[in-house]
Amino acid sequence: MKNSKSLLIAVDFDGTIVENKYPKIGEPMIFAFETLKKIEEIGHRLILWTYRYGKELDDAVAFCEERGIKFYAVNQSFPEEEFDPRVSRKINADVFIDDRNIGGLLGWGEIYQQIINEEPEHLKPTKKKGLFSFLK
């Protein structure tokens, strides 16, 4: 990765990590777990961001853990955050990976390439301008 700062990456479950068979758990999407492991290995933090809650959420987390993925947080921006888990809400992340993106879900290989090869705008260094730089 071009920048040594880690990204906080929110990942949907149904239709993204696994085929959409909600409330059941579908088959893993091709290369999903391999890609998520590589993303973690290079230092990024993963958040499971899903509509699931209760037993269905517990089952999804266990499914991922059995395949080597332990999320930094689940349906929250950071592990200690408190909120009502029955309410779907937006979380704070640098990147969102979801099958509901405009254009659909990219292949997991393409997702990996974009994450390791692109430096997000908010991480790029900016030139600070003086207060009156517009006068020049």
What is the oligomeric state here?
Answer: single chain
How many structural domains are formed by the residues?
1
Q: If strands are numbered along the chain, what order do they take across the biggest sheet?
A: 3-2-1-4
Strand content: 5-15%
Low-confidence stretches: none
Task: Kindly provide the radius of gyration, computed on alpha-carbon positions and rounded to a whole number of angstroms.
Answer: 17 Å
CATH superfamily: HAD superfamily/HAD-like
Number of helices: 3
Helix content: 10-25%
Please provide the count of β strands: 4
- Top CATH class: Alpha Beta
Largest sheet: 4 strands, parallel
CATH architecture: 3-Layer(aba) Sandwich
- Shape by Cα distribution: globular
- Would you list the SSEs in sequence order as H and E? EHEHEEH
| Classification by helices and strands | alpha/beta
Give the termini separation: 36 Å
State the CATH topology.
Rossmann fold
Protein name: Hydrolase
InterPro entries: HAD-like_sf, HAD_sf, Phage_SP01_Orf1
Organism: Mesonia algae
Word description of this protein:
- The chain has helices spanning 32-41, 55-66, 108-117; strands at residues 8-11, 45-48, 73-74, 95-97.
- It is an alpha/beta fold.
- It has one domain: HAD superfamily/HAD-like (Rossmann fold, 3-Layer(aba) Sandwich), CATH 3.40.50.
- The protein has a four-stranded parallel sheet, with helices on one face.
- Strand 2 (45-48), helix 2 (55-66) and strand 3 form a beta-alpha-beta unit.
- The radius of gyration is 17 Å and the shape is globular.
- The model has no long low-confidence stretch (mean pLDDT 86).
